[in-house]
Amino acid sequence: MNRATRTIGTVSLILGTLTLVLAAHVAATDGASLYKAKSCHTCHGENGSHPIAPGYPVIAGQNAKYLLRQMIDIRDGSRTNGLSSTMKAVVASVTDQEFSVIAEWLTEKY
Q1: Predicted structure pTM score
Q2: From 47, 67, 82, 104, which residue has the greatest number of CB atoms within 10 Å?
Q3: How many C-beta atoms surround the C-beta of residue 49 within 10 A?
């Protein structure tokens, strides 16, 4: 393999890596995508405004700080009332940053 071929291969590898990193960042900053990817819509409805059961809260239009605190408290076990135990398993792998993006997106829904 000559030097030009190695250089092209290296540049291609770097560009491919940057593309993946940027794509992951875009996905991580898109509240609508995260909301679906983290399965929030399965209980709270497509936009957080039409829960599937009467006991599930409408979360669209809520205050972002309030939503963020509730989601973190449920994940970390500080909140155990109501349906928190049901939600705990769903949010176990959601990061604080992802919660924040979802909360901001929900706040902007209404």
Answers
A1: 0.72
A2: 67
A3: 14
